[in-house]
Design a protein that fits this description.
The protein has 61 residues and is an all-alpha fold. The chain has one domain. The chain has 4 helices and no strands.
């Protein structure tokens, strides 16, 4: 998709928007779009590992 942006086939946009734009423009397939969505979900899950209730964390020591 980076090439599509450079070539002017896609407008510049944040990644989460670019995926959908690429799908609509035919730059990526539905399968590729789903892979990108799965990767984003996995990324968010890893980031959420650091999200915890500090009070519960204190009880673990």
């Amino acid at each position: 998709m980076r090439d599509a942006v450079r070539e002017g086939r896609l407008d510049r946009a944040p990644g989460y928007m670019l995926d959908e734009m690429g799908l609509k423009a035919g730059v990526i397939t539905t399968e590729e779009y789903k892979l990108l969505q799965d990767a984003e979900a996995a990324r968010n899950e890893v980031i959420a590992v650091d999200a915890f209730n500090p009070e519960i964390f204190k009880t673990l020591h």
